[in-house]
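ok trying this again, last paste got cut off
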Amino acid sequence: MRFRHPDGSTVHLAYCTNVHPAETLDGVLAQLRDHCEPVRRRLGRDRLGIGLWLARDAAHALVSDPSALRGLRTELDRRGLEVVTLNGFPYEGFGAEEVKYRVYKPDWADPERLDHTTALARVLAGLLPDDVTQGSISTLPLAWRTAYDERRAETACTALLTLAERLDALEELTGRDIRVGLEPEPGCTVETTGDAIAPLTLIGHHRIGICVDTCHLATSFEDPHTALDALAEARVPVVKSQLSAALHAEHPHLPEVREALAAFDEPRFLHQTRTSLALTPDRAGGAPVAPGLRGTDDLGEALKGDALPDTSPWRAHFHVPLHAAPAAPLTSTLPVLKAALTRLVGGPHPLTRHLEVETYTWQALPAELRPRARSQLADGIAAELTLARDLLTDLGLKELP
């Protein structure tokens, strides 16, 4: 979906296909038929943007076979779909029964990450619509925080500089400007947008910036306006933004709130949980994870005893559907998303032109909230995109055909 910003530029809205498990190129093609095109039809659109997630095997198949890449581009066109952004965070196995910490491997100190992201950039250059010259890729924020020392940090920085050089060469060859954004995530070396400023300033290349995920932003209790103002002041480019909402518990000390949270403690994904120390002056339990925060690596850990202070709200890294907040006594951080979006695209010029709805946890929701059929999932994704569209038009953007 495309929108015209009041300054005349085009803002793209897509939804991320990591919600549909697929490890191979055949699986990706099946996604387009079984999921993406039905969502487009529900929206009554001739064209729908999708943020492709390409696992290692699928990316390798496309980059090593030009005919396969042309075939994917043809299939996208045939089904009324377009790609301007890729999700390069998960490497493989994102549809496994247990993902948890595996999603952070390989990290930017491992050569496989550089090779994979280079392949994704080459693929994206071949998939961009004819009238679009800039593409974006989100990637993990360097590494998970453990086993990340100064030597690995230097290796990761060198890898990103090498990537920037390869992206420069790719533009010279294809005319396509591909940019990569580190995506701050709780528990990682770069947990917050503030953590991203130092390494990205050190790299100092316009093709390497940040991907602002609004669920992660909220989970870390970052104020969107403060965070985005700091990025702008540091001249860190916002390559893309993922529109997502976290799980919010206002009164985690109450038994009924604990019971409601426990329904979201599931075995597939990691649900880092945080509380703000600024709001809990009397207790300092929980592991220190970032300035002003206490947290646990997963929701189940937070629910055990007094692992976290419970006198102030908790937020958990669980991407809940944008249009359907959890039932009371829980809610979502949709207000953080709205505030971030206002700053991202509501000003005289957009800070980013690539927006991607990323609710990959539909099948991890409590059983009564999960879509029971493919058609229900398509309905839900279409409803999320409708909400995002309405937020954009309320900010003065005009939806394009």
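PB: full thing came through this time. The radius of gyration is 20 Å.
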